[in-house]
Amino acid sequence: QYKFRDLTVEELKNVNETYPNFTFSMNTYTFKDGSQKDLLNFSGTVPVKYGNSYNIPIHLWILDSHPFAPPICFLKPTVNMGISVGKHVDAHGRIYLPYLQNWSHPKSTVIGLIKEMIAKFEEELPLYSLSSSDAARQSELLSYIAKITAGETDMKSKSKIGGGKNEGCFNKITVVGAGDLGIACVLAVAAKGAADKVVLLDLSEGAAKGGTMDLEIFALPNVEISKDFSASADSKVVVLTVNFLGNAQTYLDVIQSNVDLFRGIIPAISHYSQNTVLLVASHPVEVMTYVSWKLSAFPKSRVIGVGANLDTERFQYILTNTLKAQVLAKDAWIIGEQGEDKVPSWTSCNLVANQTEAMAAHNSREEVANRAMEVLKGKGQRSWSVGLSVADLTDSILKDKRKVHSVSTLAKGCCNINSEVFISLPCILGTNGVIEMVKLEEDPLVQEKLQSTAGSIHDLQQQLKL
Question: Which residues are in the UEV domain (predicted)?
Answer without folding.
Answer: 1-131
